[in-house]
Structures are given as structure tokens and as C-alpha cells.
Amino acid sequence: MYRGLMSHSHRLLKGFFDLSQAHRAFGDVFAGIGVREPQANASEAFTQFGEAHREVERFAIKMLQTVKPMIADLNTFLNKAVPDTRLTIKKYLDAKFEYLSYCLKVKEMDDEEYSYAALQEPLYRVDTGNYEYRLVLRCRQEARARFAKMRSDVLVKLELLDNKHVQDIVFQLQRLVAGLARYHNDCHDVMKGANMFPIEVDLSQGTFTYDTSDQFNDDDDDNSPNYSTEYADNPTDGRGTGRYTDAVVEATEEVSASLILTD
């Protein structure tokens, strides 16, 4: 979950940074238009509109500076606090296993003594001072102390990790939402005050005069065949266009002849 949150936050902040650079470029363009505009009202409008885009870019940088520590805190939590807690838990498990091993060894030695005592047989290590048993007891005592210390450390770190998860993550998300809300409100106020449209601009007579010397000419149009003439002159064409032309000509001649006879 935390890796996904970090990745999404990083992409979100990267997108806001790219958007701020686009706003800055728009501001430079509009400011340049305002400088070159001869009409006073239009020049002021373009200049103010460009300055508004630059203000939006500054708001974005300020928001990124406010929200960027959230990524650092999440990175610290994910890459330092969580691995440190895992390492402490691993050490605690090793200490617990060592302590339980000594406990099992002491129980085995006690059972061995009881069995020899029941059989009324002498036990060599008991007869020689039982130094091994006393050594195991000493090791078990030290292992118990290490186990108790590691258990206390694990409980403390788990509590701190849980508090950071419950409180700090909520605080970081609230800071992110507050920064984004402040950024959008500031941008809305700036752009609302820079609404100076429509703008009257004097255009020169040659503004909409386009150069026709670079027009594209398709040379294939001159070499394309004249299908109507070709089909009219070819009565045997498969499409029947030549036969249709002959029929029209014959009908026209018959109508002309009938008109002459009538006259």
C-alpha cells in the first residue's frame, strides 16, 4: 500500500511540475505578445494574462515545496522504519529460540538425573561436580535476559510503527490535500482576476494574406485519362458506356427526322 501511495504521489507531483512549466511557457508567450502589441488596452490585457500564468507557475512550485516532504517522510517510513522493525523482530525470534533451547537442555538434564536417581545409579557429571549443568543454567539466565530485552524492544517499535501508521500517515495525506486545495483556490482567484476578454486588436492588411507560391500541385491530374471520352469512343467497352452513347445518338437522329417530316 505504501509503495503504491509513494509511486502515485510521485507521478502526481511530477505531473504538476510539468503543468507548471507549461503555464510558464504560456505566460512568456502572452507577455511577449503584450510587449509587441501597439494598442494600449490589448497590450495591458496580454501582459496581465501572461503574468497570471506566471503566478500559476509560482503557486505550483510553492505547493510542490510544501508537499514534497511528504514523499521524504513516506520514504523514511517505508525504507527505514519498517525494515528496522523487521530486523528487531528477527533478532527477537533468534533470542527466543536460544532461550527455549537452553530451557529444553536443562529439562533434559533434569530428567536424566531423575532417571538415574530412580535406578539408584551414579551419574558421572553429578559425581564430578555437575559443571555442565551449572553452565547451561548460566547460559539460560543470560539468554532469558536477552530475550526479555528484545521482547521489550519489539513491543516499543511495534507501538511506534502503529502510531506512525495511524497518525503520521493521516497527517501527511491531510497536508497533501490541503496543499492541492490551496493551489487550486489561488489559481482560480488569479485567473478570475485576469479575465479581460474580449480584446480589441489592430491587425495589418497583410495579416490574412497567404503565400500561394508553395501550394501543392498534383502532376498526376494532368496525366489522368478522360474516362467519359474514352468510354464514348469505345463502344465495345465492358461497362456499356459506348453502346449507351450510340443509342442516344440514334434516338436523337430519329427525333430530328420526324420533326423534318412534320414540317
UniProtKB/TrEMBL annotation:
UniProt xrefs under Pfam families: Arfaptin
Topological relation to the membrane, as annotated: Peripheral membrane protein
Keyword terms of this UniProt record: Cytoplasm, Cytoskeleton, Membrane, Metal-binding, Phosphoprotein, Synapse, Zinc
Entry superkingdom: Eukaryota
PROSITE patterns from the UniProt entry: AH (PS50870)
Region Disordered: start-end pairs: 210-242
Gene3D superfamilies in the cross-refs: Arfaptin homology (AH) domain/BAR domain (1.20.1270.60)
GO MF term (any one): protein domain specific binding
AH domain location: 1-196
Subcellular locations according to the entry: Cytoplasm, Cytoskeleton; Membrane; Postsynaptic density
Predominant location category: cytoplasm
Cellular component, GO, one term: synaptic vesicle
Any GO BP annotation: positive regulation of receptor internalization
Designated name of the protein: AH domain-containing protein
